[in-house]
Specification:
It contains 9 helices and 9 strands. By secondary structure, it is of the alpha/beta class. The strands form 2 sheets. The chain has a 7-stranded parallel beta sheet, with helices on both faces. Strands 7-8 form a two-stranded parallel sheet. The longest helix is centred in the middle third of the chain and has 29 residues. It binds NADP nicotinamide-adenine-dinucleotide phosphate. The site of NADP nicotinamide-adenine-dinucleotide phosphate has 30 residues, from α1 and α6.
């Protein structure tokens, strides 16, 4: 049986991947900070899929010792790594706290890079494996440091895809648009006014990513609406892209950050 390690597996897109992979017969290693929620997910998954093994790793991936512990588990050998845990900052760079910016880089850039580095040797050795990096459509816009961090993840994934594609390893950068999860509430972002057709569901996102991974794609953009938008932000003139990026960033700000 294959084993998948998912970071941020207790909510949103990560939780949806956990259900999808359990249905596909994967043993799971679920990573997040909240142990009660991890246990709850384990109970729910075991009820439906008693045949799979589920390990829980309570870890704050912005803390070096916790990240090292998860890395050590990845080094032992896994078949699929999903770098998914993430959060967003609702403040512009001139208003944000340095600590939050550091945590953003640690979670969105350092953790995926380190876990990928740890997981790859065993995958290369067995000549198979897969990595899904949950990036964002924001990786193509200039909407604050979140966009900058997600740009790293998308370019890193593209580069790694080229490097390991002949070794039997698949690498996918998943670039969703707005998805109904706990993300915006946790980041205290103002999302009222966003038209309904722009919202994706977490299950829609994980399902399309899974299909695209099987097809050997390097970038996955779920939803017709985001296929159109991503074409504009990827190939449109940069001054326009910068304007779109900052407009979105300013709209998401907390009221007191005005
Ligand atoms: P979510 O519902 O808020 O879930 C985030 C998950 O990450 C939770 O399981 C959370 O669990 C975990 N997590 C957060 N900080 C962590 C830390 N320091 N260490 C370990 N785990 C941590 O968010 P989501 O929307 O599913 O986000 C998943 C990914 O999708 C993120 O990378 C996000 O940037 C990306 N994304 C989201 C959207 C969107 O509109 N929702 C769009 C594009 C991309 P604990 O709190 O228990 O640790």
């Amino acid at each position: 049986m294959k084993t998948a390690l998912i970071t941020g597996a207790t909510a949103g897109i990560g939780e949806s991947f956990a259900r999808l992979l359990a249905r596909n017969g994967y043993n799971l290693i679920l990573v997040a900070r909240d142990l009660d929620r991890l246990n709850q997910r384990k109970i729910e998954l075991r009820e439906l899929h008693p045949q799979i093994k589920i390990e829980l790793l309570k870890a704050d991936l912005t803390v070096a010792s916790d990240l090292n512990m998860v890395s050590a588990r990845a080094e032992k050998g896994i078949d699929l790594l999903i770098n998914n845990a993430g959060f967003g900052i609702n403040k512009t760079f001139t208003k944000s706290e340095f600590v939050q910016e550091q945590e953003l880089l640690d979670l969105l850039v350092k953790a995926p890079m380190q876990l990928t580095h740890s997981a790859l040797p065993a995958m290369l050795n067995q000549g198979s494996g897969a990595i899904i990096n949950v990036s964002s459509i924001a990786s193509w816009i200039a909407g604050g440091t979140y966009s900058a961090a997600k740009s790293y993840l998308t370019v890193f994934s593209e580069s790694l895809h080229s490097e390991v594609k002949d070794s039997g390893i698949k690498v996918l950068s998943l670039c969703p648009g707005f998805t109904r999860t706990e993300f915006h509430q946790r980041g205290r972002m103002r999302m009222n006014g966003l038209p309904n057709f722009l919202w994706l569901s977490a299950d829609q996102v994980s399902k399309i990513a899974w299909r695209d991974l099987q097809r050997g794609r390097v970038i996955s953009v779920p939803g017709w609406q985001y296929k159109i938008i991503s074409s504009i932000v990827r190939f449109g003139p940069r001054p326009l892209v910068r304007k779109i990026g900052m407009n979105i960033k300013m709209k998401q700000r907390q009221r007191k950050d005005k």
